[in-house]
Design brief:
435 residues, alpha/beta, TIM Barrel, Immunoglobulin-like, seven-stranded parallel β-sheet, 18% strand, binds 4-nitrophenyl 6-deoxy-alpha-L-galactopyranoside
């Protein structure tokens, strides 16, 4: 009996520890919440908004004075979403190999894509789309087992209670009444998104205009985690997020942060711009993606659908080619860790979770062989990922009396080369030992 009470008490206590630490913070440990994200490796970012009507910079075009605010807002009339097929979006995202998607629910222009009850400025009330555009996508993403990410701009240049309007004109400097009203509105919208869509991931933006204290960032974090204890939050919440977002910059060395995501445009624009034809090729995107993988991060690749909801052909082509590559090389991509430090291999690499499999990413044509150095392990076997061919290798500079690692030369016949990036799986005799 005593034993039973003890066991009961103990389980209650440990439950308490899992669900509540230090009174206010989660709920579920960060490592646990971040698990799916760490393994996901690829996400698709979607910048969709009224800026796609004229094909101009999202929000910034009026902020910077390239177009008047009124003319910017006239784009509402052309935002039809008449060819919007959320099920096709979700299946394309799935096909690309992405495990999550992030959609702009509201950009800095304040135009909400969901049916918000807190402001009239939304596509349901003010555009011919006249329906909630976020809800059906969330449903389709979930149906495809993809994680749901919601982008939300904390700053709102349209809201009359928000201090900043454009670069040239500010509404006010200090007005606590207005600011408090704005905060209530902001938290209210986050609450709506939280309840309506229960996002797996929150992608905040625009935090730079105010301090954590002003945004009441800890409260936002608390609100989100009490609605969904396993939600994760990007870094743009003035220090209250879970992972880093080095925008448009691929880190040259492995970042100190354990969790990070490179967000990147597919051409030079976030939203749809008909004049921007500067698309990165699938090959370039695969190279950049491999760079992220090699340094232990994710890539969040952006697409910009048109105002009618169609996705430009160039973007579809990139996602499909990426999908072929990620599918063929899935074992080297998903659930792997960042690979070798610089100098060991001339290219990206990843490592299996148990550190006994090394994946070497070979760019282009290696002219018959690649070199691997500084690895002290014996190699048990090498094969070509997604192809299965076993490869031969030879070890040099390894006299019998030396304790140093030798140089491995791995033979790669032309026939096994991938159109974009070939990946070799190196089975080691145990956990990776570097010199
Ligand atoms: C922000 C937005 O302003 C932009 O429109 C887009 O949505 C992008 C994904 O995010 O852009 C930023 C944010 C932060 C920096 C630069 C651009 N920054 O920290 O340098």
């Amino acid at each position: 009996m005593k034993k039973l009470i003890f066991v009961l008490l103990f389980s209650l206590l440990s439950l308490g520890f899992t669900f509540k630490t230090s009174g206010q913070e989660p709920v579920i440990q960060k490592e646990k919440r971040m698990e799916w994200f760490k393994d996901a490796r690829l996400g698709i970012f979607i910048h969709w908004g009224i800026y796609s009507v004229n094909g101009i910079d999202e929000s910034w075009s009026f902020y910077n004075g390239y177009i008047s605010y009124d003319d910017y807002m006239k784009q509402l009339n052309g935002f039809t979403a008449q060819a919007y097929k959320p099920e096709a979006w979700a299946s394309l995202i799935k096909e690309s190999g992405a495990k999550y998607a992030v959609i702009t629910s509201k950009h800095h222009d304040g135009v909400a894509l969901w049916d918000t009850k807190l402001s009239d400025l939304n596509v349901v009330n003010k555009s011919p789309a006249s329906r909630d555009l976020v809800a059906p996508l969330v449903k389709e993403l979930r149906r495809n087992s993809l994680k749901v990410g919601i982008y939300y701009s904390l700053l709102d240049w349209s809201n009359s209670d928000y201090p900043n309007f454009t670069k040239a004109s500010k509404r006010y400097e200090n007005d606590s009444l207005k600011w408090d009203r704005f905060t209530a509105f902001n938290h209210g919208q986050i609450g709506e998104l939280s309840k309506n869509f229960r996002p797996d991931l929150w992608w905040f933006d625009g935090d730079w205009e105010q301090s954590a204290e002003k945004w009441k960032a800890p409260e936002i974090r608390k609100m989100i985690l009490s609605e969904n204890p396993s939600a994760i939050i990007n870094s743009r919440l003035q220090g209250y997020g879970d992972y880093a977002t080095p925008e448009q910059g691929l880190p040259s060395v492995k970042p100190a942060e354990k969790y990070w995501e490179l967000c990147m445009t597919i051409n030079d624009s976030w939203g749809y711009q008909q004049n921007d034809k500067d698309f990165k090729s699938p090959g370039q995107i695969i190279k950049i993606f491999s760079g992220c993988l090699s340094k232990g991060g994710n890539m969040l690749l952006d697409i910009g659908p048109r105002a009618d909801g169609s996705i430009p052909d160039e973007e579809i082509a990139v996602l499909k080619t990426l999908g072929k590559w990620t599918k063929k090389h899935s074992e080297a991509v998903y659930g792997t860790e960042g690979g070798l430090p610089a100098g060991y291999f001339y290219g990206p690499s990843t490592l299996s979770k148990d550190s006994t499999m090394l994946y070497l990413f070979v760019q282009g044509d290696p002219k018959g062989e690649v070199m691997l150095q500084g690895v002290k392990n014996k190699i048990n076997r090498i094969y070509v990922v997604g192809n299965g061919t076993k490869l031969t290798w030879k070890e040099y500079l390894k006299p019998y009396w030396s304790n140093n690692a030798g140089l491995y030369f791995i033979n790669i016949p032309d026939a096994v080369l991938d159109d974009n990036m070939t990946v070799l799986a190196v089975i080691l005799d145990g956990k990776l030992k570097l010199q």
